[in-house]
Design goal:
8 strands; 7 helices; 222 residues; four-stranded mixed β-sheet; 2,3-Dihydroxybiphenyl 1,2-Dioxygenase, domain 1; elongated; alpha/beta
């Protein structure tokens, strides 16, 4: 009894000690170093599916931009490299956990070996022209690049489709409505909702008088 009273070590059930040891071994042997249990926020469940996006070294800057631009988007965690690696040193930002419009993503600073392409893109549905303009202008104004048919690239090379629901609805209608809306879309860079809706109804848009074609199908005059 004297030995028991002298001990100040908290009593930990044997089963709990075993579980803690097992958790440590699993984290050590089955998780990458930057996702070890010591780097994960407490009580934060790991999503079943996460989009991993490869960046050269600007994953944190990109994640902060997305969080500031789109609703339901935020940076949730930043993990630094525990040791040197091929494209960086210990202490550099290695991965960034963030969400884009509620979708869990992980930005990986993996170096310059791989770059983004149009093979992957985020398609963002918009309800108004103001919302369409806001996202488009934010991306282009931050060093991005315009493409066609509602597509653009941000400064890190990631592709975005800023797609009004009016366009998606017109395409889903099928038949002549979809054909007219599709042909109108093919003339555009940023999508203009009024022009799409006019084309769907079979009316000419005031912005495009008859006989003057612009955009992808425009012909150069000699």
């Amino acid at each position: 009894m004297a030995n028991v009273r002298a001990s100040k070590v908290p009593f930990v059930p044997k089963g709990l000690r075993y579980l803690e040891s097992l958790q440590s071994r699993v984290a050590t042997h089955f998780l990458p170093p930057w996702l070890s249990s010591s780097n994960l926020p407490m009580n934060k469940p790991i999503p079943k599916n996460t989009i991993c996006l490869w960046f050269n070294k600007d994953a944190l800057d990109a994640a902060r931009f997305y969080a500031a631009t789109f609703p339901d988007s935020k940076v949730t965690a930043v993990h630094k490299a525990p040791s040197d690696y091929p494209s960086g040193k210990a202490g550099d930002v290695l991965t960034v956990d963030f969400t884009v419009l509620g979708i869990p993503c992980l930005g990986l600073n993996g170096g310059p070996d791989f770059s983004h392409s149009e093979a992957f893109s985020f398609q963002v549905a918009t309800d108004t022209q103001e919302e369409t303009d806001r996202y488009w202008n934010a991306i282009i104004g931050n060093g991005g690049q315009e493409s066609y048919c509602g597509w653009c690239k941000d400064r890190w090379g990631l592709s975005w489709q800023i797609t009004p629901r009016a366009l998606s609805s017109a395409m889903a209608a099928g038949g002549a409505e979809a054909k007219r809306a599709f042909e109108a879309m093919m003339e555009m860079r940023k999508i203009d909702i009024a022009t799409i809706e006019a084309a769907r109804r079979g009316k000419k848009s005031p912005a495009k008088p008859a006989g003057k074609k612009k955009g992808l199908r425009a012909k150069k005059k000699n």
